[in-house]
Amino acid sequence: MRATYRARLQGYVHFTARSAPDSETADGEGRLQNASTSGVCFTTDNRLALGDLLELTVLSDETKIVFNGEVVHIEESEKEFIVGVRFDIDQPDTEESLQMLAILGQE
Description:
This protein is mainly β. The protein has one helix and seven strands. The protein has a six-stranded antiparallel barrel with strand order 2-3-4-7-6-5.
């Protein structure tokens, strides 16, 4: 059972991933599947690894929301990867970004 409610959301995500704070980065994109106050789930063609650190930008219509987080779940399907990211709640703008995400989920 999940600790937080997940809302189904549609939109695109762009991410910059790194395996450690000072490591090289890799960019990618995906499609948002759902979100909660603790994280998001998206699909992508890019292979990520558990523990990868992401800067994740959620894009929907004219809304752009930026989060930092960590890959905590990966599931491989026939055509893509399903990726779960836990937000870094210690970042200064996370609360404002969560409010924007909640508004997006109500639209």
